[in-house]
Amino acid sequence: MLIKTKYFGDIDLNDDKIITFEQGIMGFEEYKRYTILFDMEEEDKPAISWLQSVEEQGLALPVINPFHVKPDYNPIVEDEILKPIGEINEQNLVILLSLTVPSDIEKLSANLKAPFIINSDTRKGCQIIVENQDYEVKYNIYKAVKQLKEEKGEN
């Protein structure tokens, strides 16, 4: 299937790369089908990817694996909320956080409160609100990554 994207041009996409969000995602409930895009030129899978709508070419959200910025990320969620996407286990669970990328890179933030949860086996996903009271909507990942690098002696 050929999809048109605003930022990445035309992309030939196999059906098995489409993720269905039955309820849509917050703010874009009318769009149900997405794919995850990332730079194929990098050797490792990049930290930042894009959740690209298959139905609306201009809808692409930057997303990040939470463990890149908060290694102890452990969202608390009622099992009932995840039932529609199928049985989740360590092998099929994908968690992504949406990013806010302002002009001042030091204010780069991730939404810890409303992750995207994807079952890679069923290719179904949902966006949820976690119960963790200490998780922020605008978690400053610039500071978090800088601190992680300092702890590893990489600065």
Please explain how this structure is put together.
This protein is mainly β and 155 residues long. Helix content is 10%, strand content 30%. The protein contains 2 helices and 11 strands, in the order E-E-E-E-E-E-H-E-E-E-E-E-H. Strands 3-4-5-6-7-9-10 form a 7-stranded mixed β-barrel. It has a two-stranded antiparallel ribbon with strand order 1-2. Strand 9 (116-119) and strand 10 form a beta hairpin. The mean pLDDT is 91.
Average pLDDT number? 91
Largest sheet descriptor: 7 strands, mixed, barrel
Strand coverage percent? 25-35%
Tell me the number of helical segments per DSSP (H or I, 4 or more residues long).
Answer: 2
**N to C succession of SSEs:** EEEEEEHEEEEEH
Number of strands: 11
Distance between the termini: 44 Å
| Coarse morphology | globular
For the largest beta sheet, what order do the strands appear in spatially? 3-4-5-6-7-9-10
Cα gyration radius (Å): 16 Å
Report the uncertain regions.
none
Q: Helical proportion?
A: 10-25%
Structural class given helices, strands, pairing? mainly beta
